Protein: 5-formyltetrahydrofolate cyclo-ligase
Organism: Flavobacterium sinopsychrotolerans
Amino acid sequence: MNKTDLRQKYKALRNSLSENELEEMSLAVANKILTLPLWEKTYFHVFLPITEQKEVNTEFILHLLSGKDKEIIVSKADFTTRNMTHFLLTDNTKIKKNEYNIPEPVDGIEVPSNKIDVVFVPLLAFDKKGHRVGYGKGFYDKFLSECKSDIIKIGLSFFEPEEIIKDVFEADVQLDYCVTPNSIHSF
């Protein structure tokens, strides 16, 4: 399938999930993450979910990271430049939804992209080769291309992979892993 068709398919699938299913599946994803070989890392970038889009609830992952004394990074998107600015999540960080309902830090301690060790990546769909389909704005591809070469890129999905995404671009950054409620896919 191509990206446009996959976006439609997976938005519809996510919209069909109940609040209870969403919470249970998000918790299952977080539990799977515990088994990944990444706990010696320090700086973890986590997306804050757009609840209206029924994204994986990363609150469980935030609790895991906090419990393991990891440095948690969250971002703010600039829709004019398509750049993301990254901030350390602290007790003083104020989070506010932007015009697209994306929860973002208002301000804080900025963290450069090359300091981040692990990135949890939002997506709508992914394939068996580690390619992903997002919302089509290219924020994460641009951000990930600015990170150090050994960064660990982990997609989070409620659903298992497609066989192949037909219209992958050269600038599309592949995932290292994708975690679903039932499995971990390694690429």
In short: The first helix runs from residue 3 to 15.
